[in-house]
Design goal:
There is one protein chain. The protein has a domain of 61 residues. Helix content is 77%, strand content 0%. By secondary structure, the protein is mostly helical. The chain is built from four helices and no strands.
Length: 95
């Protein structure tokens, strides 16, 4: 019988509790980063790098937990490529 609670964790090599812990902490970090960004939107002098620092840390943890090295490299390369493209577009619009 298919178990909706353990199929996905098992597919990535984790138990339900291991997956729960990672997903819960990941979600909490997202909430903290989101609140920091909202406060920063109102008070630009506060939390100037908090949201982006949390996001970078979360990305690193997410990529590092991928089961295969090749997947990590591809994922990280794609993320960097998107970031470079976005920054280039911002620079073009700015000038």
């Amino acid at each position: 019988m298919k178990n909706i609670f353990t199929d996905h964790p098992k597919s990535i090599g984790e138990s339900y509790l291991q997956h729960f812990k990672f997903a819960f902490l990941f979600g909490m970090n997202m909430l903290i980063a989101g609140v920091a960004c909202l406060v920063h939107a109102i008070f630009p002098f506060l939390f100037q790098k908090t949201g982006s620092n949390i996001l970078l840390k979360m990305t690193r943890h997410f990529v590092e937990r991928m089961p295969r090295t090749e997947d990590r490299i591809v994922s990280l390369s794609q993320s960097l490529e998107r970031k470079i493209h976005e920054n280039a577009k911002k620079e073009f619009i700015r000038h």
